[in-house]
Design goal:
Blueprint (H helix, E strand, L loop, with lengths): L16 H7 L2 H7 L4 E4 L11 H9 L8 E7 L9 E5 L2 E5 L9 H5 L6 E10 H10 L7 E6 L5 E6 L12 E5 L11 H8 L3 E4 L2 E4 L10 E4 L1 H4 L2 H7 L5 E11 L1 E4 L4 E9 L5 E4 L4 E7 L5 E3 L1
Organism: Frieseomelitta varia
Protein name: UTP--glucose-1-phosphate uridylyltransferase
Subunit structure: Homooctamer.
């Protein structure tokens, strides 16, 4: 079996933040400068901005019952069933990730009825509390076991920790239910399609959903990996992003190319079978339609 050139180097997960923050010297520097809180978010979350309402809450409570750890959570949708959630165990709030759930309970974990909220990974943490927890060596984060496939089909196990899992090590930890607009991750081209569309506008450095959108949730978009996974190919197939203001669900699979000025509404499914190609003409309007490989348009 051939190992990676540097097998000792592997992604430790963002739970490595605390030690790295201290080791960099920034933690001590910021405390010395009189700073009290840090705001942490995933780099791909375009909705993560400093919310002054949350900051005011932290400052208002610092005298009576100070909050050391605040996790922003938001309502689950069909696209977020795998997201980590908050549970209470031994009188402490804890983060539960899907990788920690036994296989026979995964469906329960994914149930929106059972777990209505999920972790956005937008976190507010008191700097002096981070310093205290590290000095006491009381930072206790569960190791998450991730089974992955490495190069040449080699099955490996990645061990990592999550930054939110440290929640139970702090005092005065709470979760705050925030609007969906504070969670806009771009991990796939389907996410990129949403933020490039007319669903959003940029206002004062923040992406804001269009008031013309009748529903508070974003559409569920599924683009086939074989033809849309790479950004370059995605942009070739979408010379202009369609109008998505009234879209609920879009599934695209196969060799499909969109013209300019396309409008998608309701549920739209476009499937080009193997060896076939679909070119949607510019100006096409599809509402609750299935477009098959021979370009028949059927009511959905």
């Amino acid at each position: 079996m051939t190992l990676h050139k540097n097998p000792q180097w592997y992604p430790p997960g963002h739970g490595d933040f605390y030690e790295s923050f201290r080791n960099s010297g920034l933690l001590k520097k910021f405390i010395k400068e009189g700073r009290e809180y840090c705001f942490i978010s995933n780099i791909d979350n375009l909705g993560a901005t400093v919310d002054f309402k949350i900051l005011k809450l932290l400052l208002d409570k610092r005298e009576a019952s100070p909050l050391e750890f605040v996790m922003e959570v938001t309502d689950k949708t069909r696209a977020d069933v795998k997201g980590g959630t908050l549970i209470k165990y031994e009188d402490k709030l804890r983060l539960l990730e899907i990788a920690q759930v036994p296989k026979d309970h995964v469906d329960d974990f994914k149930s929106i009825k059972t777990f209505k909220f999920f972790n956005t990974n937008n976190l507010w943490i008191k700097l002096s509390a981070i310093e205290r927890v590290l000095e006491e060596n009381s930072l206790n984060m569960e190791i998450i076991v991730n089974n992955k496939t490495f190069e040449h089909g080699l099955n490996i196990i990645q061990l990592e920790t999550a930054v939110g899992a440290a929640m139970k090590s702090f005092e005065g930890s709470i979760g705050i239910n925030v609007p969906r607009s504070r969670f806009l991750p771009v991990k796939k081209t389907s996410d990129l399609m949403l933020v490039m569309s007319n669903l959003y506008t940029l206002r004062n450095g923040s992406l804001v959903m269009s008031p013309q959108r009748m529903f508070p949730t974003t559409p569920l978009i599924k683009l086939g990996d074989n033809h849309f996974a790479k950004v370059k190919e995605f942009l070739t197939r979408f010379p202009a992003i369609p109008d998505l203001l009234e879209l609920d669900h879009l599934t695209v699979s196969g060799d499909v190319t969109f013209g300019k000025g396309v409008t998608l509404k309701g549920t739209v499914i476009i499937i080009a079978n193997h060896g076939e190609r679909i070119d949607l003409p510019s100006g096409t309007i599809l509402e609750n339609k299935i477009v098959s490989g021979n370009l028949r348009i059927l009511n959905h």
